[in-house]
Structure prediction request, 366 residues.
Amino acid sequence: MWNIEQFRKDLETVVNIDSGSFDRDGVAEVGKFFEEKCKAMGLITKVNDETQTLEARTHEDGPIDILMLGHMDTVFPKGTVAERPYREEGNMAYGPGVADMKAGLLIMTTLTERLKKEYPDMRICLAFNGEEEIGSLRTRDWMIGLGKQSRHAFVFEPGRAGGAMVMKRKGNIDLILKFHGVASHAGIAPEKGFSAVTEMAHWIIELNKMQDLSVGTSVNVGLVKGGTASNVVPDYAECFVDLRFERMEEMEKVQARVAELEKNLFVPNVTVDVEYQGIFGPMNPSEATKALIEKTNAKAAELGQTIEWVATGGVSDANHIGALGVPTLCGCGPVGGNTHNQAEFLELDTIEQRLDLFYALMPELV
Prediction:
């Protein structure tokens, strides 16, 4: 039914292209591979070279029955492929991005090729993102625009152990704080100095007070920098904060506290620059998503498969679509693990399982 041999050849090809998020040439090469594949299938393609996105549709712009999303970038720097190219050992495939998520991209195109032939009225859109691993800052609005046109969305991040999929993800904000003070000799004229580090320390304490794990809100100041020498009052400091939350009101609460701190600084003559990056709303299953999960479970049972559903604190592009209320499933790709490290793997026998499941499910959603 499926040409798994060709799938594996294509997987080797795309895994053996370095495409770290900051490797524009590599991401472009992956995009070109999928653009040519989509054109050969008769899809209407649209490329944005600036944001490095590829959009491929079965029909002209308009309503979308099935939106499939995936990212072309990886977390690995240029040269990784030369160190550890694609390889297979038994049922396992290895290589940079093999699971996260180049196999998922091929699931998208393989499914669409067959669905287009057998269900020509089905309106499918494939969205290939070139910068998911660094927050989708330039591509977020594009994906949200597609989501607003869509009836159902599937994100082909790797499946979890045992074939589990993701039904819920926390929201996430990366907060960058840059403090500017006044330098002075700490021994000769300490009164002339105004410490950026001291101001930052106050902020860290105040932000940590916002953590409330009972409602799923976590605050982590993961990186701090500041000062030049112990005998110099530091005129600069910065910190990077990771915020995770299950409810939008929790995010808004933290943002309100940050705004209060901006207006009421602790150290005189110190200023602060506040920058929010990579804002992901929480992906909480709507009633429509719960109904989609039930349909997926039923179809999996018909095929002799069992799907478990998990929640995670990690984010993906599914957050952008799920936050709209569009029924959205994530972790739809073949099963993989050890993502973002040298031991990343893909379970080859789950490729056909995922293809069978979504080929059976998607036509019933139209």
Notes: The chain has two domains: 4-170+282-365, 171-280. Residues 98-118 form the longest helix (21 residues). The chain has ten helices and 18 strands. The mean pLDDT is 96.
